[in-house]
Amino acid sequence: MRVLIADEQQKIRFALRLLLEREPELSVVGEAEDVESLMAQIEISHPDMVLIDWELPNTNGENALHSMREVYPNMAVIVLSGRPEAKKAALAAGANTFISKGDPPERLLVEVTNFNRGCR
Length: 120
Known about the structure:
The chain is built from 5 helices and 5 strands. A 5-stranded parallel β-sheet has the order 2-1-3-4-5, with helices on both faces. The longest helix is centred in the first third of the chain and has 12 residues, at 10-21. It starts with a strand and ends with a helix. Strand 3 (49-53), helix 3 and strand 4 form a beta-alpha-beta unit. 30% of the residues are buried. With 120 residues, the protein is an alpha/beta fold. The chain has helices at residues 10-21, 35-45, 61-71, 87-92, 105-116, and strands at residues 2-6, 27-32, 49-53, 76-81, 97-100.
């Protein structure tokens, strides 16, 4: 599965890349720090899944999801946020699932591998 990571913080992107690249069936195909670079990376890399921070700069999560869904309606989207209360809005906006940044890393791996195995 080809995964694109979108988060404003380079340290978060690096940690997510390290976590995901341990899994042989996952490949991180790009990173983005804002919505503009996210949309450009989607065009370039055609990921199967995007991990997106709900608080990306220059937009809100709802607008970012709407933009992605217009172009790639079937792409899996996992929203990440340090604000657990954002879950309801993220799911209502079209995210496939929501992961709090406070959750253990294993939770993210379970969700990503479930998508990869077609369990969602």
